[in-house]
Amino acid sequence: MTEEPIIRIKNAYKSFGRVEAVYDVSFDVQVGEVLVIIGPSGGGKSTLLRCINRLEVIDKGDIIVDGVSVANPKNINQVRAEIGIVFQLFNLFPHLTALENITLAQRVVRNRKPKEAEEIAHQQLKKVGIGEKWDSYPSQLSGGQKQRVAIARALAMDPKIMLFDEPTSALDPEMIKGVLDVMLDLAEEGMTMVVVSHEMGFVRAAADRIAFLDFGRLVELTTPEELFNNPGTERTQEFLSQILQH
Amino acid sequence: MRNTTSDSESDDMASRGSQDPLSQPVRVIPWGDVPWWAVIVLIVGFFVSYSMLTNAKYIDALTFILDMPWHKKALGDEALSENGDWSLRPMSDLEPGKYTFYVEFWDEEEQVVGRKGPYNIRIASQASDEIEAEPITQPNPEYLEVDTSRPVFAGSSAVGEEAVLFNDFSKRPLRLLLNLWKSDGLFLTIRVTVISFFSALILGLLFGLMRVADRSPDLREHIFWRLLFGAAVLILAWIFSALPQDLWKLGLIFVVVEGLMALLPAVPYTLSTLYVEVMRGLPMLVIVLYMGFAVTPALRDASGGWIIGEVDLRGIPAAIIGLSIGYGAYLAEIFRGGIESIPKGQMEAARSLGMNYFQAMRYVILPQAIRVILPPLGNNFIALLKDSSLISVIALPELLQRGRLWISRTFRAFEGYNSVAILYLIMTLVLSFLVRVIERRSSID
Questions:
Q1: Are B414 and B406 a contacting pair, CB within 8 Å?
Q2: Phi first, then psi: what are they for B380, rounded to 5°?
Q3: Angstroms from B349 CA to nearest CA on chain A
Q4: According to CATH, what is the number of the domain A1-82+161-246?
């Protein structure tokens, strides 16, 4: 018996004017799977990720998340509440403390009592390793701490899926490890994750499958071993040799 | 001042020791250092106000413009008879409650030469003006209960030419404040400014939110339900025979209503842009005149039907409506600017957590936008305060109008306009100082 995939992307197209950001992409993500999307910049990785929770609306095709079509949803807010997303630039709410950042959506969207929401927020902050920073405003946190608050904020909603949009690209090198550790722990717990990242260490350690996207097209979708040892296309080879050179 | 700040800051740091310096609050004196020119302004201001307040003409002008005194209100007057007898009655009905009255006797120059009172009266709750009451002849320190809403006072005076009946609020702070708030001159200006500004704020927020709406939305979304709603409204109107019988008129109404329903998603942006562009394109003076002499009189003439009765918004309401819709357009642009200054990622983050558009606006975007727009809002409040002088053209006795009235009585233009100017200046200088404080505060964060 094969399990129903939690994300099913069927022939998705998305273009911005003449630029085809996503072109005829189809794949499934199973429950508990960690899928990493790699590819050159401008290749449509982020756009595809943002299409999954309808921050961008696809032009053609369909994306089905947990049985609901994101292309034509009845209530997109219900779907979004089940999908956590972590942005490259954190997008924390600067007027709220770390704790309030995490409790806001819980109270407003999940209708949790303030006390319950705060308890969950403290738990999540401890889990990402900055339990003592709950009362700080984003401007008082370092990049790595901000990104961990952002992860905690997404996790507090008890999402079924977590999307990561280059979560470490805006961080100082020494901050990256802490964030990746949190993501690794999450992957080990069995969270379904779609990650846009070029941290090859993380990719090797956590990825179940890797999708290589170029010019909006899905060039290759295989396991890490297969991709690193025996890339299927010349384009993949070229890209890997570029990023793995040093 | 700067030195003291940095000293206390470093003391703070030392005493707290190894704590993270990032979590330390930044200490800044909100008004910063007092600049040298402010000292000069204060000294000059002191001499100007001193020479004004010791000059009888200025005192007379200011008293008139401020519509003073505020602690008493004349209710009626009467010339004394040959043998000094007088009898006074309030010109209008009084609400039930406690009152303190007294009677002043004036000579030909309107100087007070005598005084009688206090008459402490409690008007019963079922009082009516039809009850003929015995005249009250003696002042009474204890409250006297009467069941007429227009008690009569009578007596005889040896001095003066005229007797004036006053309602005295000096022992009733609430009534005093209310009378102050309702007085003409300075407080009419303040009243109109404050009320107009707050209604302009509501209009501005509403239209500002509409201005940031999608300018080319997907018209196909839910079109069936919108058209159905339009049809339902039309059919209901037809059932209640609120529609004309002519076929071509019916057709026209059908096309207009269903067309509007089809274009509904585009209405917020279009409507708000129209409002903002039209209102910003009109001089405030034209808006005020239009409201005062065209719209509100026409509204009064047209109303009076069986549903809501006569709607008379002439006078102060017309001025408030004019100023608020005029300034609503400016404030809408400020709100739009503030909302658009918040990075797109904030809305995306809020929406991706499952909040709907309005929750994201309410909890994430607007709280941040408010900090950005507080200084320009303050500046617009000052501008509105100054523009409120325009309502003198619809004959409202606000600050400028009272000044001009005083001038037309005394032919002293210098003293009159100086008094008007100084009153405006005091208010605007204080307000712009406050705006600067707010500006500093919002730039610290």
A1: no
A2: -70, -30
A3: 6
A4: 3.40.50.300
Q: Where are the domains of chain A?
A: 1-82+161-246, 93-158
Token duo for residue A190: 């069995």
Element holding B156 (H helix, E strand): strand B153-156
Of A52, A2, A3, A4, nearest in space to A162 by CA: A52
B182 pLDDT more than 90? no
Exposed/middle/buried for residue A240 (C-beta within 10 Å: 0-12, 13-18, 19+) = middle
The pLDDT tens digits of the residues spanning A198-209 come to 888 888 889 999
CATH number for the domain harbouring residue B400: 1.10.3720.10
A88, A170 Cβ separation under 8 angstroms: yes
Q: State the best of A46, A55, A75, A91 to mutate against chain B, taking most chain B CBs within 10 Å.
A: A91
Q: Give the DSSP letter of residue B363.
A: I
Find the DSSP H helices in B263-356: 267-281, 284-290, 296-302, 316-340, 344-352
Asked whether residue B67 is assigned to any structural domain, the reply reads no
- B367 in contact with A at a CB cutoff of 8 Å? yes
Task: State pLDDT tens for residues B387-435.
Answer: 999 999 999 999 999 999 999 999 999 999 999 999 999 999 999 989 9
- How far is the C-alpha of B296 from the C-alpha of B389, rounded, in Å? 19
Express each pLDDT in B311-323 by its tens digit: 888 899 999 999 9
> Rounded to a whole number, what is the distance in Å from the CA of B348 to chain A's nearest CA?
7
Whether B355 and chain A come into contact, CB under 8 Å, resolves to yes
Claim to verify: residue B359 and residue B331 sit in the same structural domain: yes
B116 domain residue, yes or no = yes
Same domain, B16 and B105: no
Distance CA A179, CA B367 (A): 29
- Could you give the CA distance from residue A221 to residue A232 in angstroms, rounded to a whole number? 9
Domain that holds residue B207: 186-219+263-444
Sign of the torsion angle spanned by Cα atoms B137, B141, B146, B150 = positive
* Secondary structure element (H or E) that encloses residue B379, with its range: helix B366-387
Preferred mutation among A75, A108, A130, A147 to probe B, highest tally of B CBs within 10 A: A108
pLDDT digits (tens, 9 = 90+) for A47-106: 999 999 899 999 999 999 988 998 888 888 999 999 999 999 999 999 999 999 999 999
Out of B343, B346, B355, name the one closest to residue A77 (CB): B355
**Considering the entire predicted model, what is its pTM?**
0.83
Instruction: Taking residues B266-277, report their average pLDDT.
Output: 94
The DSSP symbol for B136 reads: B
**Interatomic CA distance for residues A116 and B310, integer angstroms:** 55
Amino acid (1-letter code) at residue B168 = D
Residue B291, CA distances (Å) to A146, B10, B197, B317, B434 in order: 53, 59, 17, 9, 32
Tell whether B253 lies on the interface with A, counting CB pairs under 8 A: no
**Alpha helices (H) along B54-139:** 56-65
Query: Cis bond leading into B69, ω under 30°?
Result: yes
Would you state the pLDDT for residue B212?
Answer: 92
H helices present in A109-213, as ranges: 114-127, 143-155, 173-188, 200-206
DSSP for residue B21: G
**Chain B hits for A53, Cβ within 8 Å:** 352
Mean pLDDT of B139-147: 87
- DSSP annotation of B305 reads -
Q: Which of these ranges, A3-12, A25-34, B119-128, has the smallest mean pLDDT?
A: B119-128
